[in-house]
User: Fold this.
Amino acid sequence: MKSFKKIFGDLPVTLKVVLLAFFIVLIYFIKEASYMYVTMKTNVESLVGSRMEFVARTAALVINGDSHQQVVKAYLDRDPDLTKRDDFKKIQRILRRIQKINELGSDIYTLVQPQWKENSLVFITMSNPKTYVGNSIPVNPSALECLRTGRPTRTALYKDRKGTWISAYAPIRNKKRSVIAMVAVDYKVDNELREAAQRVAEWAGVPSLALLFFFLILAAMVGRSIASPLDEMTDAVVSVADGVPGGNIFTVRRDEIGRLAQAVNSMLESSTRNSLDSKGELSTLRDEREQLAKNLHSKELELKRTIQAYQALLGKLDEGCLIFLKDGKVLPQYSKICEDYL
Assistant:
């Protein structure tokens, strides 16, 4: 994490703005695409579910409940010729006709909930010529609700190894209006979901890429508008630090960058003015130092001559003497011998 922060921190400002815009737009598109797909999926579930519910309700109204009860009784009695019975074939023809009219690829069938196996639903009649009477499936909440309330119901989308499905149920009633069985319709919605995904892909295709490119260009322009004045300010400050007076930073902006540029201009002007004043003072100090050096050299020469004179006097002490008065003067009568040295 620290290395990522360091790498990101070392990137140019323009690139940072572009990357930030890219990720924001990308997250937006992913969120919108997900929302669009979920919405389409919900619409598929609602529309297909309503249609299948209508198909199941139509079949349940056409089927004679009392005839279906006779078929169930024959099943319970283990009639070997169950599928050859007229009432069975009549119900089967009804289911096939409804299947054909609605162009359904999956079977339409009737189910009952046996008392000896309340957690299962047993197939009684079906549109498929290859019958599977007596096979069972686990009961589900929607089917159970249909049997208990006597109202058509449907499931949400669900998956199995063959794909994604939605099922609808409608009650079959006898003459006494009692619910004795139900019609079930299964519909595979893989094609509809594939079409929804394709629409999302089309939405997220060329138009989205063009919009993404536009936002990246806009982000690059914004990043450059921030980075360019900062580069100019940096160069100007470095020039002043190196002793080279920098020019003013031209800007007509009135935002934060513009105010910063004006502040830097004021700082550069002040620094340049102070630098010139310092150079003037330095020149004056240099002249004074040269004059002081000249005076010091002159004094050194005078001191050197004085020392030479004293050295000569010390060498001639045996030829005479000097008497110094309190004011530093030498008595004339004793100084004849040193006339040539003083």
